[in-house]
Automatic annotation (TrEMBL):
InterPro entries: AlphaKG_dependent_hydroxylases, GBBH-like_N, GBBH-like_N_sf, TauD-like_sf, TauD/TfdA-like
Cellular component, GO, one term: mitochondrion
Protein name (database record): Gamma-butyrobetaine dioxygenase
GO molecular function, one term: 2-oxoglutarate-dependent dioxygenase activity
Length: 416
């Protein structure tokens, strides 16, 4: 096949070439770039390149939205010339039966670098870092409320902790019921559910949800019976003068890593076997079925674990299904053992003025049983009252991406 190669003059003059590209070649299928550092090549198909043109005729300058669809790109699109310039890769597209005039596309070197190696591109979320409690310095997860509310730097640190560790804590919060709304809206819009925009967690003799009792509440995640469970959960402590009622937090990613290493068959059963979750109470009937582990979720590994709301598992219909069910139960026992290990989970008595923020698709939360008998005060009844709300992870990722971009721009401006 005939291959055109760019002259060495272009290769020596371009900053893109000096930093990233050793050679450029093109043929009927696409343009091939060879990386200078790894000597690996990557084919950029002509249709893909034309579809991703960044010029004002293709991307609206004000909205930054595409002005064409992938279905508008001619299958026979071909360049008439390809040049490596100081600005990047410049492609002049030839006229054809569906193109009335030539079109010129320029792909900046930084944009090309991101496409050639997506692992180096800016990410909206950090790579999660698994943890167990004994590996953490509790103070590293604490952010002062005033800083969180008034400093973008503190907000960036808090949201980075949420994406890296799955949990962080605020302290110094005013004892006002609506304070949680300001905390949530600092990240993004509140996720409204049938529980309301915000909700109260306190013992209720007529509770329709086990969370609203004084019973032990094992480690779990919320609203697994929703098609899209909330991403971020926030719990603000308003009252805590009971005996017990300590809050628990564990990293499901840490437990999954152990399970995958210790029992690959059980791990695979949790990836493959569908688990039904449901809520049928108080005038609602919600259900959704999904595996316990989803390996390729929007943020990578996602875990769906909520024993109180797990419904009837399907009966095995074959010997293979029976073996999978055995492996599933073995995996659930192991997983439960990992997260309930005292060295694995954080056990913290949230006190008034404190708040926990955590990733509801990763961090498990729970609480120990409590008695309304106030400690040291036998003649008085104590109370435990948390205010809760949700925010979707889209809002978290959106806010963090902007904060990170602004921080990087400030660093560049300072020459860092």
């Amino acid at each position: 096949m005939f291959v055109r190669r760019l002259s060495s003059l272009h290769l020596h003059q371009s900053p893109l070439s000096r930093r990233s590209i050793a050679s450029v070649a093109w043929n009927d299928q696409g343009i091939t770039l060879e990386r200078k550092d790894t000597r690996t090549t990557r084919l950029l198909p002509h249709t893909w390149l034309r579809d991703h043109c960044l010029c004002p005729r293709c991307i609206h300058p004000g909205t930054r939205q595409k002005l064409h669809g992938s279905g508008d790109i001619p299958g026979e699109i071909q360049p008439s010339s390809v040049n490596l310039t100081d600005q990047g890769l410049k492609v002049r597209w030839a006229k054809n039966s569906t193109t009335e005039k030539e079109h010129v596309s320029t792909y900046p070197r930084e944009w090309l670098k991101d496409q050639l190696d997506p692992s180096e591109a800016p990410k909206k979320a950090f790579r999660p870092t698994p943890w167990k409690a004994t590996d953490l310095d509790p103070s590293s997860l604490q952010i002062p409320y005033k800083d969180f509310m008034h400093s973008d730097s503190a907000l960036r640190i808090a949201l980075s902790l949420l994406t890296e560790r799955g949990v962080c804590f605020l302290d110094g919060i005013p004892g006002e019921e609506r304070a949680i709304e300001g905390i949530a809206e600092r990240i993004g819009p509140i996720r409204d559910t049938f529980y309301g925009k915000t909700w109260d967690v306190r013992a209720d003799p007529k509770a329709a949800n086990i969370a609203y009792t004084s019973l032990d509440l094992g480690l779990h995640m919320d609203l697994m019976y929703f098609e899209a469970p909330p991403g971020v959960q926030i719990l603000h402590c308003l009252e805590q003068d009971v005996y017990g009622g300590e809050s628990l937090f564990a990293d499901s990613h840490y437990a999954v890593g152990l399970l995958k290493k210790d029992d690959p068959e059980a791990y695979q059963a949790l990836v493959e076997m569908p688990v039904p979750f449901g809520y049928r109470n108080d005038g609602h009937d919600l259900s959704f079925t999904r595996p316990t582990l989803v390996e390729d979720g929007p943020a990578g590994l996602e875990v769906f674990y909520s024993p109180p709301f797990q419904h009837v598992l399907p009966l095995p219909s074959s010997p293979v299904a029976s073996r999978q069910l055995d492996a599933f139960y073995r995996g659930m026992r192991r997983f439960k053992g990992y997260i309930e290990d005292p060295n694995a989970h954080i056990r913290i008595p949230l006190v008034p003025g404190q708040c926990a923020l955590f990733d509801n698709r990763r961090a498990l939360h729970g609480r120990t049983a409590f008695s309304s008998q106030a400690p040291g005060k036998p003649d008085r009844t104590g109370h435990r009252w948390l205010k809760g709300t949700y925010v979707d992870r889209d809002a978290l990722w959106d806010r963090l991406a902007v904060l990170l971009a602004d921080h990087a721009a400030n660093d560049r401006g300072k020459g860092l």
